[in-house]
Amino acid sequence: MINDMTKGNPLKLILLFSVPLLIGNIFQQLYNIADIVIVGRTLGMNALAAVGATSPVFFFLMFVVVGLTNGFAVITGQRFGAKDPIGVRRSVTVSTVLSSVFTIVFSALLAAYMKQILGWMNVPDEIYKDAFWYIQIVVGGLIIANAYNILASVVRALGDSKTPLYFLIFASLLNVVLALVFILEFHWGVAGSAVAIVLSQAVSVILCVIYVKKRFPILHLKKEDWKFTINKECIPFAIEHLKVGIPMALQFSILGAGILIIQSVCNTFGADVIAAFTAALRIEQIATLPMVSFGVALAAYTAQNFGANNYSRIRTGVRQSSLINISLSIVMAIIIHFWGSDIVGIFLGQSETKIIAIAREYLWISTLFYFFLGQIFIFRNALQGMGEAMLPLTASVAELVIRSFAAMYLAVKFSYFGIFYAGPIAWVTASTILAAGYFACFFKIIKKASCNVRTQRKLFKNDAAA
After folding, report:
1. Is the Cβ–Cβ distance between 430 and 399 less than 8 Å?
2. How far is it, in rounded angstroms, from Cα 271 to Cα 267?
3. How close are the terminal C-alpha atoms of the chain, in Å?
4. What is the largest CA-CA distance in the chain?
5. Could you write out the DSSP letters of every residue in 175-198?
6. Which of 114, 131, 159, 445 has a CA-to-CA distance to 437 between 20 and 30 Å?
7. Is the torsion defined by CA of 385, 391, 394, 400 positive or negative?
8. Residues 312-361: pLDDT tens digits?
9. Residue 360's closest CA among 332, 329, 330, 338?
10. Cβ neighbours around 19 below 10 Å, total
11. What is the mean pLDDT of residues 378-391?
């Protein structure tokens, strides 16, 4: 159902929008949880390490796709907020073509150079074969992931966070079933888990297309919507999408690159540390899902209100969402701090005491900095919803530099224990930049809007006098 977020109580709208997102994000994590629980419990710690060693590559790929599609969807949301149905349809077709071309080229390059990438990441020889085939299969299915994210981001831009949820839940459950079948019955090993991810996403895309066609009249694309001619109207519209989509994709890819660098350092410490780091990161991702969901909800809310020139509603929504994320960061930090070890044991089995101890050390450090991570999600998405892509990109570059330097320097000084501080240090840096950038950007927009109002009043008075 389409939801106009330019009217009504801001906090209520954001909360109602974010709850389905949160549930969807939890089921999204089932893809990764299935890898850990099924692979780790049935194939052993080396198999889990193989998945974990290449997980940052998987996240890097998804970050790029999600960043690009979400960036394009900002324009879709702004057109919807401006009550422009033709612009909405044209935005969907432009987004589909641009993201598909990019994904195909990107996938081909990654597949061709995967051996070099895994070599650069210091993947140990004993897990190299499983790691290679796992990530190659995931890369082959990247175009399917792009299709789902295009559909999901467009529907969310129209204010509907429930429809993508339904198909995500189905795909997540299907992924678990297929992973069990491929690993236990077909004996495909680690590759079976990757095949399950791709096939479950493909089914989700098909179902989502059918549903959108039946339930969303505004997205019933016409033949003329697909006509791309080189003219004064088409090129600027495509450039408008690229101005938001490319910086956002770069921003997400930079975040993914930072994780890649940390993982490459982590891989030098052996399979036990890799397995512990993999489990701890999955738990952290689950713990921070509420904060992520509020950020995504705020992006859709901000985009629609920016298109409608409702700047005061944007400020109210950001302030209220920020306070909620502060509360969430405290609650999640308490939960992880006191029960993190028990949760790690669920993933790996209580007998893996050494790996559990390593994972617990990471969680105890990172939870102290969840406050800063929560504010990153708020200010980054607010800026993106207003079409400001360069400030989040700048913050991401700073985060990459700090994270990489900290990981490599501290690992030399304090072994793998030093890697655990790289992320938190980067969070403090990025949140500071984004907060300052948001306030500077917002006041600039308000000042510009005030000038336009004064100009219009002056012209009106001159016309009246004449």
Report:
1. yes
2. 7
3. 49
4. 88
5. HHHHHHIIIIIS--THHHHHHHHH
6. 159
7. negative
8. 888 888 888 888 888 888 888 888 778 777 777 776 666 567 788 888 88
9. 338
10. 16
11. 83
DSSP annotation string for 370-394: HHHHHHHHHHHHHHHHTT--HHHHH
What pLDDT is stored for residue 466 in this prediction? 40
d(CA 439, CA 446) in angstroms, rounded, equals 11
Number of CB atoms found within 10 A of residue 165's CB? 23
Give residue 7's region: left, alpha or beta (phi > 0; psi -120 to 50): beta
DSSP 231-249: STTHHHHHHHHHHHHHHHH
Report the pLDDT averaged over residues 429-451: 82
Task: Find the range with the poorest average confidence among 123-132, 174-183, 450-459.
Answer: 450-459
Q: Please enumerate in sequence order all residues whose Cβ is within 8 A of that of 440, keeping only pairs 6 or more positions apart, or say none.
A: none
Instruction: Centre a 10 Å sphere on the Cβ of residue 152 and count the other Cβ atoms it contains.
Output: 26
Task: For residue range 1-18, list pLDDT tens digits in order.
Answer: 566 778 888 888 888 878
HEC readout, 283-311: HHHHHCHHHHHHHHHHHHHHHHHHHCCCH
For the CA atoms of 117, 123, 126, 131, the dihedral, rounded to the nearest 10 degrees, stands at -50
If phi > 0 it is left, if psi is from -120 to 50 it is alpha, else beta; for residue 219 that is alpha
Structure tokens at 293: 């969901």
> What span, in angstroms and rounded, lies between the C-alpha atoms of 191 and 171?
18
Handedness of CA 281, 286, 288, 293 (dihedral sign): positive
Contacts of residue 260, defined as CB under 8 A and 6 or more positions apart, other chains included, come to 56, 57, 60, 121
118 with 341: CB under 8 angstroms? no
Phi, psi at 186, each rounded to 5°: -90, -15
Residue 410: half-sphere exposure toward Cβ, Cα within 13 Å:
18
CB neighbour class for 157 (10 Å; exposed up to 12, middle 13-18, buried from 19): buried
Q: Is the pLDDT of residue 460 over 50?
A: no
Q: What angle do CA 381, 386, 391 make, to 5 degrees?
A: 65
CA nearest neighbour of 201 among 252, 143, 266: 143
Tell me the per-residue pLDDT of 123-134, one tens digit each, with 9 for 90 and over: 888 888 898 999
pLDDT tens for 233-267 read: 677 788 888 888 887 787 777 767 777 787 788 88
Spatial neighbors of 230 by CB under 8 A, at least 6 apart, are none
Over the stretch 70-99, which tens digit does the pLDDT of each residue have? 888 888 888 887 888 888 888 888 888 889
What is the reported pLDDT for 347? 63
Handedness of CA 413, 414, 420, 421 (dihedral sign): negative
253, 65 Cβ separation under 8 angstroms: no
Q: Looking at this protein, which amino acid is placed at residue 163? A: T
